[in-house]
Structures are given as structure tokens and as C-alpha cells.
Design a protein that fits this description.
Elements: H1 2-16, E1 26-32, E2 41-46, E3 49-53, E4 68-75, E5 86-96
Length: about 100
């Protein structure tokens, strides 16, 4: 019985330690670039590297400046950007971290 309890505990521990429900996600942060011409909320995926999400309204997340997230996305090569701060992307998965 002890072995079964231990195995169950270990299994639950490993499942609860998942960094994100988004497979192959990257650490990122929402940054408000409203002050730049044509910009709004963008996602910083690394130091001074940004992407411009086109479909945030499809997710139940309320982006705030500085909010840390996990994100998975595809670059949209056929989309032009007014903001021109980074690639235009379609978000596939996004979760607060």
C-alpha cells in the first residue's frame, strides 16, 4: 500500500510541475509599446526582440504591461506591420506564468 501511495504522489508531483500547457512554448513578457507609432501591446520573446500578435482576442487573457507569459506562435510572413518592431505572429497558445 505504501508503494502505491508513493507512486501516486510522485505521479501527481510530476504532472503538477509542468511549466505550461503550451507545448514547445517560450518565456515571454507583454510590453505596452502604445507610444510608438502604430504599436500597441507586443510580446518580448528575448532581450529587445519583439513579436506583434494578431489574434490575442481569441484567447481569454487580459494582457498587461510586464505580464509574464508562456507563448507558442507561428510567424506570418504574408502580413505587414505598421509598428515594425518585430515579426507579425499568430499565437497558437498563451498562458500566464
Amino acid at each position: 500500500m505504501k508503494k502505491l501511495s508513493y507512486l501516486l504522489f510522485c505521479s501527481l508531483f510530476l504532472i503538477s510541475c509542468k511549466k505550461s500547457d503550451c507545448e514547445n512554448s517560450v518565456k515571454a513578457t507583454f510590453v505596452d509599446k502604445t507610444g510608438l507609432d502604430g504599436c500597441g501591446m507586443v510580446i518580448e520573446v528575448s532581450d529587445d526582440e519583439y513579436v506583434e500578435p494578431r489574434n490575442l482576442d481569441e484567447f481569454s487573457i487580459n494582457p498587461k504591461d510586464g505580464m509574464k507569459i508562456w507563448v507558442t506562435y507561428d510567424v506570418l510572413t504574408d502580413q505587414a506591420s505598421i509598428c515594425m518592431i518585430g515579426d507579425v505572429v499568430e499565437v497558437k497558445c498563451i498562458k500566464e506564468r
